[in-house]
Fold these 4 entries.
Entry 1:
Amino acid sequence: MVSIKDIARIADVSVSTVSRIINNKKGVNLEKQARVLQAIKSTGYVPNKAARDMVMKRTFTVALIIPDTFNIFQRQLFSNIEHHLQKFGYRTVFYFVAMGPDGEDDCFQRVKSERTDGIIMLQEIQLHAFYEYLESNKIPCVITTFEKDEWTSTSIHVSEEEAAHAAVNHLIQLGHRRISLICGKRYSFSLERKRGYRNALEYAGLKYDENLVVYVDSYSVLSGGEGMRELMKRNTPFTAVFAVTDELAIGAMRELKDHGISVPQDVSIVGFDDIEISSFTIPRLTTIRQPLGEMAQTSVAMIHSLITSENHLNVNIAMPSQLIIRESTSTLNGNAQDGT
Amino acid sequence: MVSIKDIARIADVSVSTVSRIINNKKGVNLEKQARVLQAIKSTGYVPNKAARDMVMKRTFTVALIIPDTFNIFQRQLFSNIEHHLQKFGYRTVFYFVAMGPDGEDDCFQRVKSERTDGIIMLQEIQLHAFYEYLESNKIPCVITTFEKDEWTSTSIHVSEEEAAHAAVNHLIQLGHRRISLICGKRYSFSLERKRGYRNALEYAGLKYDENLVVYVDSYSVLSGGEGMRELMKRNTPFTAVFAVTDELAIGAMRELKDHGISVPQDVSIVGFDDIEISSFTIPRLTTIRQPLGEMAQTSVAMIHSLITSENHLNVNIAMPSQLIIRESTSTLNGNAQDGT
DNA sequence: CTGAAAGCGCTTACAG
DNA sequence: CTGAAAGCGCTTACAG
């Protein structure tokens, strides 16, 4: 494996000047520069990243922390972030963290051992020591898709509660009164979306009914089906449902279809996230669009600023979400069924 | 940032013995061991990966090369691979490569600079120098989801052509004679699936008709819709379609629906890959299942073996695929329309 | 069993 | 403008 010494030898200069040329420092003899460039070209030499990282105490990479069970929205988001990061010259390393203390600990070990320049978190981690570490070592960190109250950091997110409120209110405006909720207990986004659901109900003078809410284990299409099945078993009539993610909504629609219940004629349904596939389902899904591209772009702009600037001013950015009305919701009319 | 020297000082031993303890070498005084373990615990010390990588000339990570436009199947696959890699103690670093020479070159620079222990390729790269580099530096590499003829390496894949043949033959068995193809020109898998389509037709004594095949730019749901739109413009009647990926098929189904054409009553459709969502579409999609889990597992088993063993025996593994019949295909009956 | 020393491949003051 | 030297944080022979 060719090293900087080889280049120095071939070009008949010192390693210092090779290093200078590689790093575009000004003031090198043009003739020598030509010689080393030639040597680099002929050998295909590329500096060893590990060596450079060690001495510079910078890695030019940022870590992206995400749940190993990432859903489609998160996937679209991290693709986007990776792309922007690359434009800024950063590499991205993904830390997929498994549920529970062990997963978090693995992640923590990696941040300590790999020393990335910064961190973007798409998932909450509980481990207290983690935040202490970031703080005491002044490691730039931006949180995206949620906020963390106990920890001041810059975060980029949508007003989950408000957005969910808008989704449910859409259903209420259409005349629905018995609105089910499919949600989960993990991750703050679900809790907040549930709160938005509840608020919208109360705001409209509707009673919150535990029988109309079902909790599922994950936010996948499969869970959406399970949630709907559970709901239908309960014999509590409903004419609309708010699913806390699009995937859940898609699974729920599938299950309804299997029971001969039509969307939106019999039951209206609204999701959350506006993932790609949601404009292609049959029927197309009404949902809340998160400004994915903007969130990604802002996240990397912020992490870059945090990495390169002296004063770490933390900001909390709430981005606007938008209700996208498509085909899965309609007015409650006379022949709407009970969904049972 | 605490280093090995700090631990040595705190525990009052040499850095050598700290290193020995960290790396679980046998034969260290138990009392000293206790002291350094205590020091490590109290300081939260974790070895610097960059330093270790440099001196050991190993990184304990494998690179996963994938197209930056990865589709859902590829996403499921790389998630799976990452997971298995982790079980073997490897880290995964993703190289998303953009289409074209620049993208490939970036990727090549990264493999040269980051020196991963091995490489798993989910995407073909053309650059000749790349393979020369791998070869001359004896860098283990496994290719998954395709084969590369000019380059002997271990590869894991499905018999694309055969599988496509089976998909189209299913349509033929159902009585279809005018079968469209939605495919692309990029990536070998599409070419091979097209070949399977053609073979199946000829095998059944059916004529291959260019008017029935449409080429799309990507393998996304969006492109599926575009392909179908194009097909319908041509006024060439068809009663069935084979889409080279599930996403294409899903997009095509959506487009048909918009034109009031029912699947499978009017037109039958079969996809390829069996991505998760395909069991939840309306109607559920008939498709070819690739043994995703097995492919992932085998890929990492092979790369691990290549990394750890002396003799690099290359193997070419063809895994079985399976036709999954669901709701999007049915027999051609009297009232089937022409699809125009 | 254990420490001092050399070395991995770089970058960066420091002289000249 | 440029080279010799020190040093980054590790591991691994090599003595003892």
Entry 2:
Amino acid sequence: MDERTLLILGLLKSQSQHGYQINDFIERNLGRVSDMKKATAYSLLKKLNESGLIEATTEQGGNRPAKQVYSITPAGEEKFYKLLRMSLVQVNDYLPHGDIGICFMDQLPKDEVIGYLNERLAKTEELLASYEDVPPHVEHLHGVNLTIRHRIALFRCDIEWMKQTIEELRARS
Amino acid sequence: MDERTLLILGLLKSQSQHGYQINDFIERNLGRVSDMKKATAYSLLKKLNESGLIEATTEQGGNRPAKQVYSITPAGEEKFYKLLRMSLVQVNDYLPHGDIGICFMDQLPKDEVIGYLNERLAKTEELLASYEDVPPHVEHLHGVNLTIRHRIALFRCDIEWMKQTIEELRARS
DNA sequence: AGGTGATTAGTCACACTTGACTATATACGT
DNA sequence: ACGTATATAGTCAAGTGTGACTAATCACCT
């Protein structure tokens, strides 16, 4: 949740905006960095507002319904820097999602498992290709490009591991 | 949540046991594969019991309070195999935890960021070493060893990425 | 026989997250 | 002028996950 707070504060730091814009930006540009959903963003905005890290001004545009425009407060900026520093020193400890299945692989015939892993391997290679093809560029967020490289590296690592695992299974008596 | 169901069904498939044993086994042997907490395990057991995938028999031992012993049902075994197959073909899509901070790194002085990343690098190397040193061995769950290798590979990948990133930051005008 | 700490066994209130829903405004074709 | 599709802006019920708590038993010392 700290990560998500950091994200919202970071976006509001560069520009005041309302919930919709924030969610839109995340969906369009940061889908590879965060999977926060709209409803979560709104509820976080509400919480951050209540705790004084951001403040809302009601904007009346024509005869539209009123919208809230959120801006970061000084307290919010402080929190932003604190969370940013925390995030930068934080070790990534992966719990790869699919590894519980790997634990129980002996419950299926070896050849069937090899088939599934090959399927997974192919899908992962496709996904990797989609990252390699599209050179990303989020205007003022240079760091995003580094995260894309990060994920490419992780996919390659996963692919190597799968190949090695399949090889080893094949070699089993 | 499917992953967690798979884990519980898998453990009950090899042996009927109560909630405490399940949680204990996860904490002791599978801390590197799942981070499911005790309360979650109990609530899952309850749900799986209600939906007929497992069944509970009350065990009265001496004058202790009664405990529930859970066993997998035929429906549960079917579900187990279904989830296992799903898990094996499922692509891992990493959203590395710390990458939101990376996105905003330009908000801090370059040298400060390099300092933090070096700290993170050192911590990750330590963690990697702890995985490399202790040769793991979970008796009847041979697949666990493969997951350990998986995580070692991911740590190495992360380390490479950090080194590369730090290098690039250093090289910036 | 009494105290202390670990082990066994489990519950519960609370926080977080999201799918599905509401509702207005704007664009655009016909 | 009218439908209808899309963008804008947000809410809410329901599900998931867990820290903190309760409570009995056991091991061991003194």
Entry 3:
Amino acid sequence: MRLSKLFFQTLRDDPAEAEMPSHRLLLRAGYVRQLGSGIYSLLPLGWRVTQRVEQIVREEMDGIGGQEVLMPVVHPADLWRESGRYDSVGPEMARFKDRGGRDMVLAMTHEEVVADLLREVIHSYRQLPVMIYHFQTKFRDEPRSRGGLIRVREFTMKDSYSCDRDAAGLNRSYQDHYAAYSRIFDRLGLRTVAVASDVGMMGGSQAHEFMVLNPAGEDVLVLCEACGYSANRQVAPVAVAAPPAEALLPVEEVATPHAATIADLAALLGVPESRTAKATFFVADDGRLVTAIVRGDFEVNETKLANALQARDLRPAHAEEITDAGMVPGYASPIGAHGTVVVVDRLAAGSPNLVAGANREGFHLRNVNAGRDFRPDLVTEIASVRAGDPCPRCGAPVELRNGIEVGNIFKLGTRYTEALGATYLGEDGERHPIVMGSYGIGLGRAVACIVEEHHDEKGIAWPPQVAPYPAHLVALGAAREPRVAETAERLYAAACAAGREPLYDDRDESPGVKLTDAELLGMPLIVTISPRSLAAGGAEVTDRASGARSVRPLDEVEALLADRAAGGA
RNA sequence: CGGGGUGUGGCGUAGUGGCUAACGCACGUGCUUUGGGAGCACGAGAUCGUGGGUUCGAGUCCCACCGCCCCGACCA
């Protein structure tokens, strides 16, 4: 591709709105353009990278027996009513009416369509297992997009769906995907860690997320260096031992002016935070006011709490809602409260004689014990793992890291097939629901993550497997020295003929512009042809990632450009 | 949805009530230049986010709305 013809534009200055390296560089190098919040166009270079990524994903999906299909973006709402998700999914799903007044949705995922296809196509156990997948646009009206391509509203996703006879088949499909995903991210040049995760809106029994470690990641991961344990903090169990039992002491009120936070309280009373109880308040989607009690040295884990309550949604409670239940924010405890579901963290319940709120401005109670002084509606684990807490598997201190989710795998089970009546006739002559799994990879997010991991201060440095072009030919001083243009044209033509079309900067630009653009654009190999290089016996070859450069004879350069396996300089 | 910020040629910015809205980059033409974002000259390009208001006069002050960014809430 000749740069003189390429639809692109590099920017000298960083666009003001871009903060993350991937966002900044993809914009500056002319790979993408923003149309609206969380809505991007892919320019030719960006589209080529995406296609390279897509092809790698396709090969690995085909490798585990996947069959590519294409399912629609616009679905009749009735389909989503059948699964119950038309009502359970919130405003992140775009809805509209067609001209006939029928309710329609823009698909944010395709379980329903797959289940619909299954009930039409699959009748017998002989047709199972089967796995289908597609690359399709998804629209999710996120409350807030962010981070350039990391979190967008419209994006392309590879989603695959395994369809098995039973749980054992699902396990195999799940393992196949797990292995395929590991190969995919490896090939993409992404170092990922697979973490056990929450099943969220998908439902199902088991899920893993493939995470790229990145400080800008929106998820917090619990990692153990000692044994390799890894989990999303949303689900990671707290393995902190309960303190030794003590005799339960009588409750005693103590004045604690201006001690509305745990830190202030602990300092004022001279007790460790672990000897206090912290109350936080939520309102569930069904209207229940939830009082969550964790030990003062822990934070509430909203995912665990929501799961414990079987609530779809939790929001922080307003002060009036807390007061209405007979509690005093800042000095609150369940003692004397009414009209609230009290959920106590396992560890808080197992820690005796804690300091808790007195429900009186400026006062706390010493020696509060769950069960004796108030009755919890539920005692279960609702606290989040902290950095340095013992690993739930081996006990070594765990580490907390942020991660970006680039892929996930879910065991769905029969939730959708039962709802939609997608069944097969088994060997036993009985009708059984098909057992499904669903597996996603966000392509744009993967591209952004690759840039996050493969860039320097000068620009992008694509791994060869995903680079839009294998090399970047730069002709310098061509106007002055006809041999430069001739040589560059010859190398370009030869590479194209070998099926390895490079980028070719044939523009009438100054050397500085061309060289900085080459580094910004990030092709793995930069080949510079100039009077100087010709005098030195050939062309200068620079490995973008390492910066290693050397002048090579022209026939060697020609072979390098044509060689599919060529990597470095 | 809460909090914060921001909106001026394609990009980055200046312009805190007063003449024809300024600068750098990018863009066009010509000449010069050619290994690290070149020089000179000429030129094109902005209803200053939108609507209302205050004022003799508004890019600038006030109100409302909209867009975008960040933090949080949210989230396969």
Entry 4:
Amino acid sequence: MWLRVATSQTIPESETLVRRLAGPSTTKAGLAKDQTEINRVIAEASKGSKFYEARTNICMISKASISEMLNKGWINLSVFPFMDIVIIAHICCHDTRKLVKLEAQRDLSQIIVHVDMDAFYASVELLDDPTLDGKPFGVGHGVLTTASYEARKFGVRSGMPSFIAKKLCPDLVVVANNFHRYTEVSRQVMDIFRRYDPNMCAAGCDEGYLNITRYCNEHQLAANDCVQQMRDMVRAETKLTVSAGIAPNKMLAKICSDKNKPNGQFKLEFDSCAIKAFMRNMSIRKLPGVGRVNERLLESIGIKTCGDIYSHRATLSLMDKQFGLNFLLQAYLGIASNVVQPGQREERKSIGAERTFSPIGDQAKILAKLEEVATELEHDMERGDWTGKTLTLKFKLDTYQAFTRAKSFTRWISTKKEDLFMIGKELLMPELPLTLRLIGLRVTKLKDLRADVQSAAGGIKRFFESAQSNSSPRKKRRLNADEEQAGDEGPSLTQDGFEDAMPGYHEHADSDELDAQIGQLDHSPLSSALPGMTTSSEHDGQSQFSLQKQPHARPPHSAPASSQNTAVASSSRVAKPVSTISNPKPQSACHTTSNSFYPGLAATVGAEVPAVGATDTALSGGSVQAQTCPICGKTIDVDNREFNDTLTSVSARKRSGKLKFLLPYSHRREGTSLTHERQLLKERPEGIRGDTDF
DNA sequence: GCGGATCAC
DNA sequence: TATGGTGATCCGC
């Protein structure tokens, strides 16, 4: 007997993508209403470009991988003498125990605030040039880093190439980035935030997390009043508006700050039931760590909202490896980290530089680019007093395929550009000839020269070491002076964490438009190519799609522009007859899906998303039938072992399947609260590109 | 240790 | 005509 644990057929991929056109992924404030028309314009403008082709291929590979995963999502139940319902019941019981355990860890004692500047770059530009007021404008060149709210009404968004933005909004004004100004203004704003929490954590230049518990206590302030006061202060001192979310943890606060954007705030009730109600209809895309790929992955088994996590917990349990059950259960409960602390310098893991340019095939010119990058990296490494043991070269072909090549050393890598260039060249030369559009260098296995010096003997010794090192002591001293003047107390950047942290290039890196376009494209030949690609992975242990990059692959030499299309074509040729994947079926509610695959499940554990009250009763270990597993505590011990064995072997199969789509580590970490800790605590104390310009 | 992939900002 | 840069981590090898 076979039990289907996946529900791929119920959600046609093309529909999934098309739905995203106007779907919840595009919930940015100030968006235009007619998303369909916007997407048509974007698709029109993009069609035929290499970028578009590349994204199309990526989309197909994703679909194929998801499809493969779902095809492998069968569990052989013949080893069990019982019916599948027993298994499901047990799984749900197991998950319920997990939920109870998680619920017990919930901490509502801290007041966490996520602050987020509204259209930060655009607002700063507006500050400096009032004539822009009321006009639709974008910031950036080539690619927009942000758009004014007027421009957003036309569908102009961050990450959009300006030529497309102009098509959507012919009157669009485009102004250049002024990173220096953003850094400056950002510092002002962060200084204000720090009055409320000196330990606040800046997350990029336009947002941050604060714990205002203490401030509220000391000033006898309600959280809402405190945050309102803080926002007023920012407005008064900088003329900028900021939105904020108030919640018991960072994840919730982040989601809340989006609720009343722009220039608003939202406080979530500090109550378990209210939080779960809040999460139930929340799109999974809002969860930190769930990007475009994971969204699709989860949608493929019918999970679109955090509430769906609960109703699909049996599936998720069986496919824990793929989905990260623990993370998702926490998300469903609205549980996450509430630890707010500034990023630490020692947390840094790598430092690098990369540059995009119009495609170059000429070797000498490529090497010249490499040298530029090496120079930039030298600057940043010396500026931050970093070195490391591994150098990674990154290059992207004109087809937008990216590759990396790395080399490790037993000694510390010299920070001199000549040496960086030489190693980089060594890595690059065997790959040529190629037509490249990007080159980058990155150093990992870092060593913090400052910490080293400090622990050794303090400032004097540091001075001597600087003098002995192969870099200019004069230069180093000057840079250090700059940083100390900025308020830094030595190596720890707890004070200024943000100082050198140039913003991410964009306010948001989302560009779902392309997926949308590709979704439209899915109606034709692409979908039919999928089954073949999927089955091709079956024939040996290796999961290799025709289009997939091979591990350690050598990039195609001077790949003709059509090479990928050729691959598609050949893949189509071996494809089996069109499968059901793209067969549009009426899309019914998720729990219906669930029922159809888990006969009896609804009766046993309730396949529908439970009402909040019901959940609570469930979690409190009450008498709700859903929680009383008919198997647990009795004969299940034996079965449990078998069951686990089965799961293990399933997991092993999954692993050998080389699935490409996995949740990020932070969401799979056992025990620790989910957290975008990585993001939140991440400090980028040194050498951001923008800084090197001044 | 290396390379591909995903994600956040 | 034309689609970014920095950093982190996981997995399979």
